[in-house]
Amino acid sequence: MRIAVLGGDGFVGWPTSLHLSAAGHEVHIVDNLSRRWIDTELGVQSLTPMDSIQERCRIWKQESGNSIQFHLLNLAREYERLKQWLLDHRPDAVIHFAEQRAAPYSMKTDRHKVYTVDNNVNATHNLLAALVETGIDAHLVHLGTMGVYGYSSVGAPIPEGYLDVQIDTPAGPRDQQILYPTRPGSVYHMTKSLDQILFQFYAQNDGLRITDLHQGIVWGTHTDQTRRHEQLINRFDYDGDYGTVLNRFLIQAAIGYPLTVHGTGGQTRAFIHLQDSVRCIELALGDPPKAGERVRIFNQMTETHRVRDLAHLVARMTGAQVKPLPNPRKEADENDLIVRNDQFLALGLQPITLHEGLLAEVVDVARKYAHRIDRTRVPAVSAWTRDIARRVDHDPEGRKLRAV
Ligand code: USQ
Predict the structure, then answer these.
(1) Predicted local distance difference test score (pLDDT) of residue 356
(2) Residue 321 has pLDDT above 70, yes or no
(3) Fewest CB atoms within 10 A around its CB: which of 139, 212, 222, 338?
(4) pTM summary value
(5) CATH topology of domain 2-236+272-301+336-352
(6) CA 394, 382, 258 angle in degrees (round to 5)?
(7) Closest by Cα among 328, 337, 321 to 150
(8) Which Pfam families does the entry link to (predicted)?
(9) What is the residue extent of each domain of the chain?
């Protein structure tokens, strides 16, 4: 297949591009390199040293013999160029990762809220409108999030996208399936909730073939392909905005930083290893919906864990200290979460679940590049509201106190 990977320079986009190229597909990365600009804006860098996208593609060609082509394009801003690109390349499938993906970044200031909505919603809508206008019948696979469901304890398993409901009608009760009601917990998660409505409309109105992957928190950093050469290494975020919880705990353990548990750590979340994430995308590509069918939604996760349990697991493994902090987010202190993921299991996914070997691999990568870490960028200080901002702990290590 000829596959366009929009956002193919990012944390999941890059290993996905390599995985699909290794599987024999013709891969084109379309990216505006915004993630690299955000690093510059925030004054942080990936823990792992990343080469330019062109250099990464050159090394991949050298290692595998397969080409990945890179195209610099801003999906949210350059609508006419996007249309022309689709007409010139006529992809069989389009994978859409090209969105700002960090909840804390989306909540930093009003400017970050505006940017996240503007970028994410326009990128998705431009793509949908361009597919209709060009008549290109590509299967669109979108990276959505488990966060669209929200994190209140409902007691019942979260279904894959659609909820069975019964409606009272004058003729008696009628069964229906509706999109699971969204309950986003950040501006970022809200944009993915809006995406769902855009997909529903374009599948119904224009017969676009769309798969939406509701992904959990990705952990790990290597895949089979990124291990093949030092310069194919994936990006690895540790900072308070882009670092995600389990990877952050592993990096913190590697540098002797206290494990930054928000609140009681009673938040239960869904997780998936990076290797499974790229495998799921391949499985979803192989099983497209037909034109006229509703959007196919998969829960792309393999297990659920409570944040404090993960912290204690990492602490036991490494001797790190666990530090409960005031929570910078507005979220439930404690929640339960049961999630259905039958569809990927039925397609043959064999989940890689949390085990010490893989956790230790992440700690090893973090130790190797520990010299690149700026400890002052580890705390998560983006607060969800002005009131919460007053209680955020900017110095979990107590360095300033020690200096006094
Ligand atoms: N947390 C801590 N300590 C930390 C960092 C986070 O306790 O140092 C807590 C947070 O308060 C939250 C949980 O861990 O309760 C998860 O936070 P996260 O930063 O790992 O994940 P999140 O903000 O939800 O976003 C990440 C990705 C996003 C993806 C989402 C999947 O950045 O792109 O959509 O995971 S999900 O969480 O299932 O919505």
Answers:
(1) 83
(2) yes
(3) 338
(4) 0.97
(5) Rossmann fold (3.40.50)
(6) 40
(7) 337
(8) Epimerase
(9) 2-236+272-301+336-352
> Do residues 229 and 239 make contact, with C-beta atoms less than 8 angstroms apart?
no
- Please, are residues 205 and 40 in contact by the beta-carbon 8 Å criterion? no
Q: Span 254-282, mean pLDDT?
A: 98
For CA atoms 108, 111, 113, 118, give the dihedral sign.
negative
CB 307 within 8 A of CB 332: no
Which atom of ligand 1 lies closest to the CA of 327? Answer: 11
Beta bridge partners of 324: 261
What is the structure's pLDDT at 327? 98
Residue with CA at minimum distance from ligand 1 atom 38? 216
- Cβ–Cβ contacts within 10 Å for residue 381, how many? 16
Which band of pLDDT confidence, cut at 50, 70 and 90, is reported for residue 154?
confident
Token output for 374: 């700026």
Average pLDDT estimate for 202-222 = 98
What does the alpha-carbon distance between residue 207 and residue 5 come to, in Å, rounded to a whole number? 21
Burial class of residue 126, CB neighbours in 10 A (0-12, 13-18, 19+) = buried
- The pLDDT of 221-246, averaged and rounded, is 97
Question: What gap in Å lies between CA 91 and CA 87, rounded to an integer?
Answer: 9
Give the mean model confidence (pLDDT) for residues 278-290: 98
CA of 63 from ligand 1 middle (Å) equals 34
3-state SS string for 378-391: CCCCCCCCHHHHCC
pLDDT tens, position by position, 41-91: 999 999 999 999 999 999 999 999 999 999 999 999 999 999 999 999 999
Nearest CA to ligand 1 atom 15: 267
Q: Residue 307: CB within 6 Å of ligand 1?
A: yes
Spot the catalytic one: 151, 180, 188, 257.
Answer: 188
The whole-number pLDDT of residue 403 equals: 62
